[in-house]
Design a protein that fits this description.
Layout: H1 19-32, H2 36-55, E1 83-90, E2 98-104, E3 121-129, E4 140-146, E5 163-167, E6 176-181, E7 189-195, E8 198-220, E9 223-224, E10 230-236, E11 245-246, E12 248-254, E13 265-272, E14 281-284, E15 290-294, E16 296-298, E17 307-309, H3 317-320, E18 322-323, H4 326-332, E19 336-341, E20 344-345, H5 352-364, E21 373-376, E22 379-389, E23 392-406
């Protein structure tokens, strides 16, 4: 019997995957599981890297620039407050092939110029190359250094910690430089602009730091002004003294670091307090009798008064000061009085002794035959003070009010009714 030869079964080949294929499959699986927030961050990072490449040629971190790692901390000051700060002026002796001009940048325009809000102050310097500013070989470069690096203040300090220079890298944009003050400095700084390839053709400007005035106080003799509210004063009724007060004495509050001392002008303005609607003292009695004491003069004797209030704005505080004596106000600020009796009004200037007597009656609420009811208005006038420095102004105000009175009389001697006593 023939034996049938059996052919062994062919094994089904097993599909093998390469390491690369397995890795790709794993990556595909992991990609499918990637959270949405991670994808968003990856896209944003890509945009940031792209922006870095595009801006790479703009010299973001060149000489005088501030790196992002230096934006916070260190000696960088908060935005400058008060009056003063950076001042940049062209040096007088200059190369005739160059001219410079500058202007200060207000804080509200910092964003438009790409200036950090924490900057102290900033100015823009513009260079003009002569004879033709548009020449293709007129690209400018800017540098800065302390005027005297060996001075006691400048030793060990870097000028880049106090000012930064930002300018373009093209022919036109390179000629405008934003000078940003990062912190107060105590040594002047020289800023030089020159033409690339022509180092001998240059111009320089000097940067100074004007001492900042952050606040100020004001006194008139022993009367110290309380800003933004009432300043209470004692009314002097004696006629031999000007009372409390004196000439204006303004004291600035200033910073310690500067290269130029504070320089300011002061303007004083007086105005009637809005609540001053009636005379200071009003007395009323029977038969329509009344008396009025205030800063006004009556010119009509019949029917109704025709009063003219003193022009308080014309009073010159700078040359005269402020004194809170009734006699001084009577002589210099229009303090006056008039009476009403039986349909007739007094006119002109009231005698001061009579005026003082009415004021005393008002304060003591004295009942007399004519006047039995008194009202007092303690408000005098408002003082507004404007201090200007470096084209900036700081304005404050106070209202003077009467808190009471003194009646100081001159003493010439003492008499006794009897020179001897016998017991």
């Amino acid at each position: 019997m023939a034996t049938k030869k059996r052919t062994p079964a062919r094994a089904t080949p097993t599909k093998r995957t390469s390491a690369r294929t397995r890795t790709a499959a794993k990556a595909t699986t992991e990609k499918a599981r990637t959270p949405l927030w991670l994808k968003v961050m990856a896209v944003m990072l890509g945009f940031i890297m792209l922006a870095g490449i595009v801006l790479g040629g703009m010299e973001l971190f060149g000489k005088g620039k501030i790196k992002p790692s230096e934006w916070f901390g260190g000696d960088v000051a908060q935005a400058g407050t008060g009056l003063g700060g950076l001042e940049v002026k062209q040096n007088e002796e200059q190369n005739s092939a160059f001219s410079l001009m500058s202007f200060a940048i207000p804080i509200e325009m910092y964003d438009a110029y790409g200036i950090m809000p924490i900057a102290d102050s900033a100015q823009v310097l513009t260079a003009t190359v002569k004879p033709d500013n548009l020449g293709t070989n007129t690209q400018a470069i800017w540098t800065a250094e302390f005027l005297n690096p060996a001075s006691a203040w400048a030793q060990g300090k870097s000028v880049g910690d106090y000012i930064s220079l930002a300018y373009g890298n093209e022919i036109v944009s390179s000629k405008q430089c934003t000078v940003t003050c990062l912190a107060p400095f105590g040594e002047p700084i020289n800023i030089k602009v020159s033409i690339i390839g022509f180092p001998d053709i240059n111009a320089t400007a000097r940067a100074d730091y004007r001492q900042r005035m952050t606040d100020y106080s004001l006194r008139f003799g022993d009367v110290s002004c309380e800003w933004g509210r009432s300043t209470e004063v004692t009314w002097e009724l004696g006629d031999e003294t000007n009372g409390a007060g004196g000439m204006a004495s303004l004291t600035p509050v200033t910073a310690d670091t500067y290269t130029l001392p504070v320089d300011y002008t002061v303007k004083y303005s007086l105005s009637w307090e809005s609540s001053y609607t009636d005379p200071l003292v009003v007395g009323s009695g029977s038969m329509s009798n009344s008396v009025y004491i205030g800063f006004e003069t009556n010119s009509s004797s019949v029917t109704s008064p025709q009063t003219t209030k003193f022009d308080i704005a014309s009073y010159d505080v700078s040359s005269k000061g402020l004194y809170f004596g009734a006699k001084y106000m009577y002589d210099n600020m229009g303090l006056n009085g008039y009476t009403h009796f039986m349909n007739s009004y007094s006119t002109g200037q009231m005698d001061y002794a009579l005026l003082r007597n009415y004021i005393l009656q008002g304060y003591n609420n004295t009942t007399t035959g004519q006047y039995t009811y008194w009202t007092l208005n303690k408000h005098l006038f408002r003082l507004t003070v404007s201090v200007t420095c470096c084209e900036q102004t700081m304005e404050k105000w106070t209202t003077f009010t009467i808190s009471g009175y003194n009646y100081t009389i001159p003493i010439t001697g003492v008499e006794l009714n009897n020179s001897s006593i016998i017991f």
